[in-house]
Structure formats: C-alpha cells, structure tokens
Amino acid sequence: MSARYGRVLLKLSGEALMGEQQFGIDPAVTTQIAKEIAEIQGLGVQTAIVIGGGNLFRGLAASAKGMDRATADYMGMLATVINGLALQDALEHAGVPTRVVTAIEMRAVAEPFIRRRAIRHMEKGRVVLFAAGTGNPYFTTDTAAALRAMEMKADVILKGTKVDGIYTADPMIHKDATKFESISYIKVLERGLKVMDATAISLCMDNKLPIVVFNLRTPGNMRRAVLGETVGTTVTA
Description:
Layout (H helix, E strand, L loop, with lengths): L6 E6 L14 H16 L3 E6 L7 H6 L4 H25 L4 E5 L8 E2 L2 H9 L3 E5 L9 H11 L4 E6 L4 E2 L11 E2 L1 E3 H7 L6 H9 L4 E5 L5 H7 L5 E4 L1
Parallel strand pairs: 1-2, 1-6, 2-5, 3-4, 3-5, 6-10, 9-11
Antiparallel strand pairs: 7-8, 10-11
Helix pairs in contact: 1-3, 5-7, 6-7
C-alpha cells in the first residue's frame, strides 16, 4: 500500500495527551499516539508534528484572568516543550528516531529551529517535533502548524481531534449537527467553524495546503488519512 502523501504535518492539541484526565499527560495515550505515528513512518511517510500545550497551561485563559497576554503565551509555549519531550520519549520507545525542535532556544533539552536542518532530519527518516509554537506571543499552535507545514513543504496538515471531522455545530452539544465530507477554506472562515483559528486557515488557503480533520481516538485513522482514504473532513480550495 502506498501513501497518498509523502510528507505530512500532524497537529496535536495538548489535550490529546490528557486522555480521560482533567490535566497533564497520560502515558498510555502518548504510547498509543506514538504507535500510530510509527505505523505511518513504516509506510515511508516523512512526519513532522506540532503540539499544543493546553493540557498544562492555557495562555488565553490566563490572560482572560488578568495576566499579561505575552507572558501567558510564553508560558503556554514552554508547556508545549514539556509535551514534546513526553511524546519524543514515547516515540523512541516505539523505535522511531525523533528530534524535538524548539522556536525558543533551550539547547540543553532541544534543538533550535533551523529550517534546513529540520528538513534534513525528515529526509533521514526522523520524526521532527516542533515545540514552542512560532516562538511569538499572540500566535496559536494552529498557526505554528500552518507555518511549519509551509516551511517543511508538507503535502497536508493532519489535525487530530476528539471528533471525526468538521460539523455544522459542536456535535458534543448539538445532537443534530451534520458532518462535512469536505469544505472550502472560505466556508470555514465565513461560518466561523472552530477547526483552526482564522490566521492558520488563511495561511493554508493562500498556499493551497489541504487540511484533514480526523478523530485521533479511533485506532488506525492516522494511517487511513495518510493512505488517502475517506476519513474525517478535508478542507481544500
């Protein structure tokens, strides 16, 4: 079986690592995610990952309570580095060589982000885990995912979520919400659908980069998405 995409960027929220917990990192969940990533690496797919930090710290929530927004965002970026190290550990236990690359320099724990070096890692079959967002406050990890996907010349962004695609409304709240098989960037922006934030969607739209939104909790979904099978919702022009 040959993969439809040669190079993918996987976007994971920090919450993805919590499992059923309210906070923190569930080792069983990181192990499961690592196994799925190992599977797609086995297909010869080059994989980059951008991870959020919402399971440890939410910059927006803290700034809403009066903390300086830039300070809160930097704290959130540091949380993503903790998640990156946890996922790196799980991936290496699964036999996948991994490099954590961070937008905020901290050479003792991770490499600084150098675009060409990151691409070289991927060409050598290593998973590259991008932490610390874009390194700038006021930008989400969704925007970081779109930006890194462009820089790495990825063929697609795979966004792993708790639901199996994009719906007309939140399916957790509205039982009558219907799912889109595919949708255009413009419709996502016009309807204000909470896929990724507007900056990230606009960036993907300008560069014609498709986004596949799928349920991360369904085993095998990541592999299906990479093979080009119908899974979740695809956002294209």
